Amino acid sequence: MTGHAKAGRPNQLLRNLNSKIASIPMMLTAVVIFLGGTLWTVVYSFTNSKLLPRMKFVGLDQYERLWSAPRWLVSIENLAIYGVFSLIFSLTIGFVLAAFMDQKIRFENTFRTIFLYPFALSFIVTGLVWQWILNPEFGVQSVVRSLGWTSFAFDPLYNQEIVIYGILIAALWQGTGLVMCLMLAGLRGIDEDIWKAARVDGIPMWKTYIFIIIPMMRAVFITTLVIVASGIVRVYDLVVAQTSGGPGIASEVPAKYVYDYMFQAQNLGQGFAASTMMLITVAIIIVPWAYLEFGGRKRG
Amino acid sequence: MADTASIDHSTITSTSAKSAAGPRGKKPRPLFSSRNIMVYGVLIFAAAYYLLPLYVMVVTSLKGMPEIRLGNIFSPPMEITFEPWAKAWASACTGLNCEGLSRGFWNSVRITIPSTIVSIAIASVNGYALANWRFKGADLFFTILIVGAFIPYQVMIYPIVIVLREMGLYGSLTGLILVHTIFGMPILTLLFRNYFSALPEELFKAARIDGAGFWTIYFRIMLPMSLPIFVVAMILQVTGIWNDFLLGVVFTRPEYYPMTVQLNNIVNSVQGVKEYNINMAATILTGAVPLIVYFVSGRLFVRGIAAGAVKG
Amino acid sequence: MKSRLLAAVLAAGVVLPLGMAKAAELEVTHWWTSGGEAAAVAELAKAFNATGNKWIDGAIAGAGGTARPIMVSRITGGDPMGATQFNHGRQAEELVEAGLMRDLTDVATRENWKDIIKPSSLLDSCTIDGKIYCAPVNIHSWQWLWLSNAAFEKAGVDVPKNWDEFVAAAPALEKAGIIPLAVGGQPWQSAGAFDVLMVAIAGKDVFNKVFGDKDAEVAAGPEIAKVFKAADDARKMAKGSNVQDWNQATNLVITGKAGGQIMGDWAQGEFQLAGQTAGKDYTCLPGLGVNEVISTGGDAFYFPVLEDEEKSKAQEVLASTLLSPATQVAFNLKKGSLPVRGDVDLAAANDCMKKGLDILAKGNVIQGTDQLLSADSQKQKEDLFSEFFANASMTPEDAQKRFADIIGSAD
Q: Using H for helix, E for strand and C for coil, what is the string for chain C?
């Protein structure tokens, strides 16, 4: 139901004029802030700007330094682990919960509110609470130990090897409720007749979900993917609140590297180089897909 | 919808009337069937995981510090005290200001309300233009916008400081509202675009034939049909803006600092020992507004999401 | 008409809270929010308010990470505060070069800062191209080992008199269930502790060669290897101190859960707040009891260029208030730091502060790393040492190699 191309008016510029005028804020935001800001960042990543941006080009120096910094490499690795698990778990848990919620259960509202409320809390709050629950001195570990299992060890935030999973636990707690809601909405949007047809054909329930329902929920998955993935790339507050990147540098993430080097180290060039790398990665994955998804003809 | 048709074959009957919003799945069965036990078992187990932190927060905020140091975090308070709440709200110190969270509460309101309204107004018009009045190049802008959703805020601080400085808006409330509008735009525009695309096309066509223009259709036809998606947008924005710390503190001056600044100061400035009970009380108090919004409008949220995310 | 109304509304919103009286209100930003720090800052505010002006407190918790970006954005964004704290040295260098900071030379000459500020290196760090841009308010030295007397009593050993005795006492402490050395998780703490070990073990000259001359060869040499060995001991002793903030780590010492902590003299304020007495409840060893040298870093206030004349005047008043003898005494007693002028009477100072004043009088001072290294090099160093302290599989040799690289490329 595209609205354009109703009557072929002669002047291209005047076509949909009101629509264009109304979209000016969007165009300005897209071009000036997102595109302009990005280009500005990229340009200055080739300079040796310190506290203030300045045009003294140093070629690829900042990038060389970036890729030889152990902390950056750890950050990338963490983001990869966190990203993959976060995507898998939030989509799976969200979908499974939604599927259960969709079984004509009682107290649906109560359950939904319970699953969704963490989303109302900021990452700072989330990090704080989970930092506390996972604190070995008075959190889960000490409680289990006081029950008699004295060798029980569960201190993900103080163990370099698994600290990123400690952060993952908190992130999933905060975010899966929204995913569940999105999925539930998707399930509700599917025609009842499809279920009936599947039942008549004797297709088992799990098969119906995987082969029929999920493919039909493509749009929901895409919206969810955009929301979850953009959250993953930007993860910062949660890490700061929960571990400050520690122990050592074991839970550092790229966004934190960018921020720390821009402002704490007062080395804008280095921060910009790191953010350019992040942007390039995002762009390689997102742009072709986004253009296909949103740029092509519209789907109904 | 192609796959749908192929499966539906013989069974499309007229019984799908009550489909719109009700639960799906198979017919209800006796209460204690094995299926029910599994379903409720899983849900209750999950609910416990989601509720645990809230429980810990509430319980802790009602304990005194000696009890916190001795007991375990899951045990209920032996002696309930509301002192941490009072202190967090009215007398916790940030530097020299010992007014607790109350200092920032009205600032947060002053920031959140206009920012929410402006960002939703702009994003809804964007979505409407993208869905119904597409012009050449619109998709390009939209794609840039979606990619923009992936840029960490921190990276954009510098360019935005420069833009706002040149516009003379740096440090003002208007500037902050603008910043929230910018950062809320990608996701909101996506939701509104999807929602408007999913509305019946005939309505739009009929209005066009009647000679209605861009704004007339928006205000007379689209808006009245869009309550659910506006609720979704409102919930997302209220939550996001209320919880924001970084933008609020970078783009305004102290007299406008939101509540989260005090929260950060209370939580991060340790006076000797961490006063967990006050931290937790402050945390709950700060989260109260978005929480209430959720509890009140949660039902509309799912309906709105259903409309905004499903079709696309 | 409409626009005038709008302007009026805006003006009312913006100008009114700033007051109409002649006495100006000055917004002062800083990151002093812990108990002792807030008490100290209250003294500054009191003194400034007594001049008829008004101190508007803009405290933002979380030093470098949170507060500084906000301060810098405010200044570069064209909405500067009246005055702001920085660790003097190199943090504000570029803001000064960009002409955003106010030249205080007039005030400084009028009040004779050159003669009263001791050691003179403090004023040097405020001076760029012969002009003075900041008012130092205190001297903070890093080189202190704080020990809990109760912890050692419980472990049945004497309170150590130097680093080596401390290391030797570690097993006894551990046996008594006490963490020998408290080190918080924030990166600057482990990096700072290393610097302290370096002065204590390798001495002042090596310290100056490494951080002053950025001599990578010395940094890779045997002297520094010894320091890394000591740092290796330190990290083993620090195992189990699961805290983030420095004052939480200090609190472990105060409560006797940890034996000691390497921390700057600001830790003093926390002991004081807890009602403990130096010598009786806790012991302080400057230079780790090995090499009695202290560094003279510290805090300073910078004054952004303001257009408002009244406020500019108030800035001058604030600058001279900060350095007045009475303020210096009141502030530094609460803060646990040393005054920047040598001519004030600190009779009320406790044992530890007196030790510090003695060393200062003897001239056994070094510059702080904040003054010698850029924030960038400092950050790289922090990354290295926070990893080294947390990651037991990183050998001292590897760490030293990376350290030498950082020094080699430092500016």
A: CHHHHHHHHHHHHHHHHHCCCCCCEEEEEECCCCHHHHHHHHHHHHHHHCCCCEEEEEECCCHHHHHHHHHHHHHHCCCCCCEEEEECCCCCHHHHHCCCECCCHHHHHHCCHHHHECCCHHHHHHEECCEECEEECCEECCCEEEEEHHHHHHHCCCCCCCHHHHHHHHHHHHHCCCEEECCCCCHHHHHHHHHHHHHHHHHHHHHHHHHHCCCHHHHHCHHHHHHHHHHHHHHHHCCCCCCCCHHHHHHHHHCCCEEEEECCCCHHHHHHHCCCCECCCEEEEEHHHCCCCEECECEEEECECCCCHHHHHHHHHHHHHHHCHHHHHHHHHHHCCECCECCCCCCCCCHHHHHHHHHHHHCCEECCHHHHCCHHHHHHHHHHHHHHHHCCCCCHHHHHHHHHHHHHCCC
